[in-house]
From TrEMBL:
Organism: Lysinibacillus odysseyi 34hs-1 = NBRC 100172
Source organism, top-level taxon: Bacteria
Pfam families xref list: Peptidase_M78
InterPro entries: IrrE_HExxH (IPR010359), Rad_response_metalloprotease (IPR052345)
Limits of the IrrE N-terminal-like domain: 23-125
Name of this chain's protein: IrrE N-terminal-like domain-containing protein
Length: 150
């Protein structure tokens, strides 16, 4: 199953596009902690999945962190992930790219861009509104179009 399909399945199954609500419904605990320069990470202790989020991050960034870590919980459930730091957010590791792709597909559904009611709304407006680092925009693919910031 493709990442985009897994995202759609979760949103339909739990009837919400809130990553915090989906995590709760899946039995994943969310811990807010002072993590210094670490944004967040996913861990599993004694079969209990936990998303750790830096309590000092803005609400928009916390939403992105939760979605990224939810991606790890769904795609890599038995892997304790490395810390998501500001400078490692753009890692070339396969699991980090997959978690970032999950977050992008979750927070930026295709319908957001195919609805023509607001022709002035851009992908860059959407990433700003969702706390998504602009460097990750290239992971979004709509109808074969990949977005690359010039």
């Amino acid at each position: 199953m493709l990442i985009k399909d897994k995202v759609k399945y979760l949103i339909e199954k739990y009837d919400t596009n809130c990553p915090f609500e989906i995590a709760k419904a899946m039995g994943i605990y969310i811990e807010y902690e002072n993590l210094g320069n670490v944004l967040g990470y996913y861990s599993k202790h004694f079969r209990v999945p936990i998303i750790h989020i830096n309590e000092n991050a803005s609400c928009k960034i916390q939403r992105f962190i939760c979605t990224h870590e939810l991606g790890h919980a769904v795609l890599h459930p038995d892997t304790n992930t490395s810390f998501l730091k500001r400078h490692t957010l753009f890692s070339n590791e396969k699991i980090e790219i997959e978690a970032n792709s999950f977050a992008i597909e979750f927070l930026l559904p295709d319908e957001l861009f195919t609805d023509q009611t607001n022709s002035y709304f851009t992908i860059y407006d959407a990433i700003e509104a969702n706390g998504i680092p602009p460097q990750l925009v290239a992971l979004k693919n709509i109808d074969g179009k990949i977005f690359i910031k010039k």
